[in-house]
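WARN retry 2 of 3 for item q-0093 after timeout on previous attempt; input resubmitted unchanged.
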Amino acid sequence: MKRLAVAVSGKSGSGKTTLISKIAKTLIERGFKVAITKHDPGDKARFDREGKDSFVFGSLGADVAVVSPNRTTILLRDGLFGGSERIGSSSHDSKSEEFSPKFEECDADLKTLIAYFGEFDYLIVEGLKFIPLPRITVFRDEFDEKYLPFSDAYASNLDEFSDANKPKFGLDEIENIIKWIDNNAKKV
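OK item q-0093 returned
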C-alpha cells in the first residue's frame, strides 16, 4: 500500500468534489484503494434517522458504527478537526472564519482519521485547510487569494493569477495531477 495523503481545498462551488471524483475514479480504475474524507464543518450531514437503532444508540451518547457489506459509516460523538463552538457561529456561517487549531491537535486527529480507513493507497481530504498535508487548491471562474498561503499546487480554468511559482493544472489534467500527487503527497 502506498498510503499517500493529499488535500484539496477551494471555495464552496469551486469544483473540489468534481476534481476529487475524477482523480479517485482514475486511481480506482487502476486498481488502487482510495479513501476520501469530506469535511462537514457545519455538522449538516445526517446519516441516521429518528427511530432507527443508530439514532437511538447515538442519542445515548455512544459512538456508533453502521456496518454493512458495501458501506460503513462511523458516527462519533466528538468530532475531529474543530469543535461544537464553531457550528452556527456567524463567522463560520458567513464563510469568513479563520480557524487555526494547534498543529498537535490536527496531527492527532489526522492519525485517528487514518486509523479508521485501515489500508489504502491514496487518502484525499476535501477541505480542512489547516491540516498539514500537501494541498491542491481549486479555482473555477474566480481566484481567491486567501487560499495562497496553504496551497502547494492549483487546479483551475483561469489563465493567470498571482501565484505563478507553484504548479498549476487545468481542471481536466487528471494524469498530471496524479503525477503531482505521487511526487508530493505525504506518506502516512
